Amino acid sequence: MKTIVSWQDKVLRILSGRLDNYCLGGGTALSKFYFNHRMSFDLDFFTQRYSRKEIISLLKFLSEESGKDFEILKEQPKKDKVRILVSNARLSPRYSLKIDFVEDYIKRLKPARQSNGIWVFSLEDIYLRKIYAVSGTLENINEIGRRIRTGGRQEAKDFYDLYFLSHTFTNLSAFAGKYCNPAMQEALINWFRSYPRLEIKTGILELRTKNKVDYRAMEKHFKVEIGRILENQIGRV
Question: What is the pLDDT along the chain (237 residues), one digit of tens a residue?
Fold first, then answer.
């Protein structure tokens, strides 16, 4: 695992000063630049100026400078969806490093910070994108005409990151009340009601965390926070 973390740092040094249109986000940004709460193995770069040509150029430069071949693993190039390009380099027979370049369509809440030539999302912006990740990025209309979000991601790492942000930074209910519209808040409620408990509980135990994790405490925390979101929604009716 230290091999991947070491290579993350090397990649960030190589790309320092070359990512003016990109912000590092996700679990790695949250851990490496803020909380050091768990090990995260991917690099997620978000951009509001998505350019496949520029990304390919960056990967070519990175491959030349690092001596590792950063190949395209998968890609979603259609403009009617969130564009993403996923690159992967084999570091050893056992380890590889994945880098995601993601089109960022979400409005920035706070200015990004710069660290050694790399732009990093604010805690607020990491938080909001974690909420989008679990609750869904696609907005649809349900059978009674209400706007809902679909397509959420159900992964233990997002569950833990959201808990850590809510427990350490700003309570989920307060954050959602300030930054999430009613459709997003309802999506959060639906996420909590429907996420696969056993799968997440098992996944939590497999995470490499700094401190011992207690799934029951996290579930209890989310239950309280989701209850507060529900109360706020009822109060608006």
Answer: 678 999 999 999 999 999 999 999 999 999 999 999 999 999 999 999 999 999 999 999 999 999 999 999 999 999 888 899 999 999 998 999 999 999 999 999 999 999 999 999 999 999 999 999 999 755 544 443 444 444 578 899 999 999 999 999 999 999 999 999 998 999 999 999 999 999 999 999 999 999 999 999 999 999 999 999 999 887 765
CATH number of the domain bearing residue 147? 1.20.58
Q: Residue 28: exposed, middle, or buried by beta-carbon count in 10 A (0-12, 13-18, 19+)?
A: buried
Task: Find the domain containing 202 and state its range.
Answer: 123-236
98: left (phi over 0), alpha (psi -120 to 50) or beta: beta
Cβ proximity of 121 and 134 under 8 Å: no
Domain count, the chain: 2
Same domain, 60 and 99: yes
